[in-house]
Amino acid sequence: MSKARHAGWRAVRRGAGLAGGDVDTVLSRSPEPFSPASSEKRAALAHFEPHNVLISRGPVRTVRRALQEQVLDSEHPVHHLADRFVPVVEEEMQHLLAGALRTGSLPWEEFLDAWYRVVRRVVFGDHARDATELTDLIIRLRRDGNWAFLKPVRRRTRARLLQRIGAELAIADPGSLAAVMAAAPKGDGAEPSDQVPQWLFAFDPAGMATFRALTVLATHPAALAEARREVDGDTSGRRVLPYLRATILESLRLWPTTPMILRQTTQPVQWEHGLMPEGCGVLVFAPYFHRDERALRRAHDVFPERWLTDEDDPWPLVPFSDGPVVCPGRLLVLLLTSAALASVVGGHELAPGSGPQLASDTPLPGTLDHYSMTLEVSKRP
Ligand code: HEM
């Protein structure tokens, strides 16, 4: 850790709370001794994916993480199935926009329906485009998950979901994530069916981040102009769109969809100021760091450029977490969401409709209710 980095972080230590440098320690020393399989998370995710990597410990965690990384192509900015995925995004977005042009408006619910069609085609293949029961089941069980220990697990519904996913893995269309999963070599205890619900569940926030980014572009003319410059000059077939990827990251910085990153110590951990016992819960509250105007340039503005230089690197901006447990789907998310933004802004004018109003000369609010948001859409001249 560089000196300047260290100094900056320590400057904000307060009371018994942990500061920026400590975030780095916790995330880089995961999964041991800072395990992501905290008691709260195990209780929440047990409702629909009891053997998922995120709540696994020991050797099976290593096996499940390796499988996730392989299928999601975690280290590659352009997933090896991008040639299939990007046209799926384009097709579904154009279908959505054709409807929006007829009414002049694009509400969140319609965007979400289209986004889930993309998700089902990417995860299972074209045959699952309209298989809404797959995503509905997970949405239902995830709602139970919010109650964690307080609600009994619906074992029959969970078994139905996992069986259904197992059947999908057996018939997955070539060129889908499920087909890659089915063909991948697997270590003992990989439990492939339990790894898939996390994908379905986690694509939901990717849709939210995209819709919020569209709202930002609709209200920030300089960012929209830069986005359009990138789309108009693109020669990568929408696979490499750094500014649009940065716009999604900025949307996730401003309104993190995983605001709380949870850990639990698996052994006592010595800190500068004392000993943290085994079994201690640790919470990294991302919005606290993401909006700290003492450490960040333009903390409450849209400033996608921050993700294109290393100036803010020392500060923990962690929408996808960081370290060995970092979200293995992050680069796939950025590929698909930036392609979705490109499909919309390339050929369409956007204006804010109903819902919370954003403006380029006003600090952005700390939360953004996307449920009530509508965008006005017209053809770009
Ligand atoms: C905007 C969308 C998403 C965000 C903001 C996000 C963020 C995160 C975060 C914060 C974690 C927790 C890491 C930790 O505890 O340190 C995580 C874990 C994970 N995410 Fe994502 N995620 C997103 C979408 C996805 C998608 C679409 C997939 C799969 C297709 C995915 C797969 C996973 C997996 C498998 C884990 C568990 C990793 C592990 O335990 O090693 N995520 N994600």
TrEMBL record:
Q: Give the matching SUPFAM superfamilies.
A: Cytochrome P450
InterPro entries (alphabetical) = Cyt_P450 (IPR001128), Cyt_P450_sf (IPR036396), Cytochrome_P450_monoxygenase (IPR050121)
Membrane spanning stretches: none
Top-level taxon: Bacteria
Q: Name one GO molecular function term.
A: oxidoreductase activity, acting on paired donors, with incorporation or reduction of molecular oxygen
Tell me which family the UniProt entry assigns to this protein.
Answer: Belongs to the cytochrome P450 family.
List the protein's name. Answer: Cytochrome P450
Which lineage ranks, top first, belong to the organism behind this chain? Answer: Bacteria, Bacillati, Actinomycetota, Actinomycetes, Micrococcales
